Amino acid sequence: MLIFKKLRHILSGQFIRNFGWMGGAELANRVFRLGTTVVLARLLTPQDYGLVAIVLTTNEFSNVFTLRSGIGSKIIQADEKELSVISNTAYWLNWILCGSLFTIQCLAAFPIALFYHNTQLILPICVTAIVYLMLPFFLVQGALIQRENRLNIFALCNVTQSLIGNILTIALAIMGLGMWAIVLPIVLSTPVWVVICRRSHTWRAPKSISFAHWQKIARFGTNILGVELLTKLRSNIDYLIIGHFLGVDALGIYYFAFNAGLGISMNVLGAFTSALYPHLCEVRGDLKQLKQRFFSSLKTTMAVMFPLILAQSSLAPIYVPIIFGQKWVSAIPILTIICLSALSYPLYSSTNSLLTAVNKTHVTLRFSLIYTMIFALAILVAVKWGILWVAASVLTCQLLLPPAYSISAIRYVFAKHSSFSLAEEKP
């Protein structure tokens, strides 16, 4: 009876409820996306996948400055007495960032097309930049919703956008639009977030422009932005190097393997991360509670993620030819290796959420800089022998470096006689 009571208590916790919403949304997304992936795998060519990889990689780098800039994270973490001022300033900062990114990405489309010797890249890169002009309409509301632990709203946004986006993708792919079948739905499905977030929160944009406390936001966000940029660089540098040295067709095979292999795992992990950060921020000033919440959540995350990753990796030879078709059989060894590289992600992402919650993002930034340099060097060396060796170098780096850093960082935060205040901001 005691065991059942304890289990019921664990499952009724805020972290589990939030993960339940986000995890359910991601499960629905994967169901929608599975059908889309099967259709695309049979209708698109490696050339199409290669072009999409370049367009989406460009877009992902720009996205870091908006969704991952640290502005939203500061709203989630801010003290109640300064929340209104922080939110108002964040709104105007978002407009400056998003307007600048729209212009920069459109201008960058031309040298990117020149780098890859393909002018077909210019227009889709410019089209995906339109998304940035929509983001300021809901980013502050989204951060406030996350701060209030109402992740069921985020789950609704994810599911609705995914459903609309996947339906559009399948329809456009059947119509023979090639890479545009993936590019256009990104823009057309984004208004879902604007509508749902604005209907779900009463906060509205200030009538007058104000930048009060912008230094505090910038100080907090700088390290987060640096970490996210380096993370995005690591996530995409193999695409950039393969596309440049081995060609778009090789990139298409590698890109397919990476997304088919890590898609489910990373979506589930994203659900855990979204639930974990506000869960830790609630008790960031209490070392004992913070430690209890962190390790409890980490155990739950690993218990779910490890079996999922191992199953996805070991079953690849069975499900790839059945689901995606025989033309992708050559990608199975790469897919298997890439799946296994995700084993270190749960510990690494949880550690980063912990450090962000206690204002120690400079620790993450320093490691991320070193890690990115080693990772890039390994990819540059491995690409000489082909994409299989690139995948092997990714696996080696992921299994060795992040766990060592995570263990050290966790000890730093939870040292028995901690010398810093968890609530104190680093100047």
UniProtKB/TrEMBL annotation:
Membrane-crossing residue ranges in chain numbering: 91-115, 121-139, 151-174, 180-197, 239-258, 264-281, 302-322, 328-348, 369-392
UniProt KW keywords: Cell membrane, Membrane, Transmembrane, Transmembrane helix
Residues annotated as signal peptide: none
Keyword flag Glycosyltransferase: no
Pfam family, one: Polysacc_synt_3
Membrane topology type: Multi-pass membrane protein
Name under which the protein is recorded: Membrane protein involved in the export of O-antigen and teichoic acid
GO cellular component: plasma membrane
Subcellular localization(s) per the UniProt record: Cell membrane
InterPro entries found in the cross-reference section: Poly_Biosynth_Transport
Species classification: Bacteria, Bacillati, Cyanobacteriota, Cyanophyceae, Coleofasciculales
Organism, scientific name: Allocoleopsis franciscana PCC 7113
Domain of life: Bacteria
